[in-house]
Specification:
It comes from Samsonia erythrinae. With 281 residues, the chain is an alpha+beta fold. The chain contains seven helices and ten strands. It has helices spanning 50-58, 64-69, 81-95, 142-156, 175-178, 192-204, 259-270; strands at residues 29-34, 43-47, 72-77, 110-114, 119-123, 135-139, 217-223, 226-233, 236-241, 275-278. The protein has a four-stranded antiparallel β-sheet. It has a three-stranded antiparallel β-sheet with strand order 2-1-3. Strands 5-4-6 form a three-stranded antiparallel β-sheet. A hairpin with a 2-residue loop joins strand 8 and strand 9. The longest helix has 15 residues, at 81-95. The protein is globular and about 75 Å long. The N and C termini lie far apart (69 Å).
Length: 281
């Protein structure tokens, strides 16, 4: 017999939550699974159809533990998907739900800085990622950034010594050159410029986009008569208002780079896929 802590969660349809479904809208927004605690939610999620998404949770056997602990379900309706994504990310950071394992604030967020010559790992707590050029990739810690560089090195026959990951032996080629895993930038067998060019091409696919506006912008979303303006500054989500006259009431300011905001907003903003209203000229 398996010890108690190894016993699998047994799924039973959560009939005690049936009444919670009555008020759930078939609309975009954020939903919250609450347990016995009034202050610590169990799970926060988002969907373009809150009702359909919550119903899918209730039918998922892998979520048996979450469902058994849930006592009620609340929701916040939004005007669109971007509003739901931004609100979900903020609520998870602020409330740290028990069953959410992503979108947690990373204190060691870093990126790769490469100006064509020097390559280094830099941290968001030291460098403003929204305005600093020549940044590539977002990583939760330094090791993840180094591993990304090693993967590129393996595929492009780059030298870990030239990349600054390993120490080069004085006057000799690196160990990887003998294994034919390095094209020889460390020992003159290929020009360093060729080495750096291959690196630049690969990094370009990971390039971070600098904030292109002089100040704050509003992203307008509308659905069935409901309009919201999401206020963004340097990729940082400041909040949502129903009217632009309310922007001045937002107290939060962009004090650091927001990786979640960047990931949510970069593609739609850069591609002009959303209705953007510049607020500061």
């Amino acid at each position: 017999m398996m010890p108690p802590e190894k016993m699998p969660d047994i799924y039973e349809y959560p009939a005690h939550l049936r009444t919670e479904l009555d008020e759930l809208p078939a609309a975009p927004g954020v939903y919250v699974f609450h347990g016995d605690s009034d202050t610590l939610p169990l799970y926060i999620g988002k969907s373009i159809n809150i009702r359909a998404r919550v119903l899918s949770h209730l039918r998922t056997r892998k979520e048996a533990k979450l469902l058994r602990q849930t006592r009620r379900i609340t929701f916040i309706e939004t005007a669109g998907e971007i509003g739901a994504l931004l609100l979900e990310a903020r609520m998870i950071k602020q409330q740290t739900p028990l069953f959410n394992k992503r979108l947690r604030r990373s204190r060691q967020l870093c990126s790769i800085h490469f100006d064509g010559n020097l390559i280094e790992v830099v941290y968001a707590r030291e460098v403003d990622f929204s305005t600093t050029p020549d940044l590539y990739g977002l990583f939760s810690h330094r090791l993840a950034a180094i591993n990304a560089l090693k993967t590129i090195a393996d595929e492009e026959k780059l030298c870990l010594g030239v990349l600054g990951i390993e120490r080069l032996p004085a006057g000799r080629a690196c160990f990887r050159y003998a294994l034919k895993k390095c094209a020889g930038a460390c020992c003159g067998k290929e020009p360093v410029s060729a080495h750096q060019e291959r690196l630049a091409i690969r990094l370009n696919a990971m390039k971070l986009n600098c904030w292109a506006y002089p100040g704050k912008i509003a992203i307008k979303e509308s659905r069935q008569g409901k309009t919201e303006y999401h206020i963004i500054h340097h990729w940082f989500y400041l909040g949502t208002v129903a009217d632009l006259s309310e922007v001045a009431t937002l107290k939060q300011v962009a004090t650091n780079f927001d990786s979640d905001g960047y990931k949510i907003l970069c593609k739609p903003i850069i591609s002009n896929g959303v209705d953007i209203i510049p607020l500061d000229e």
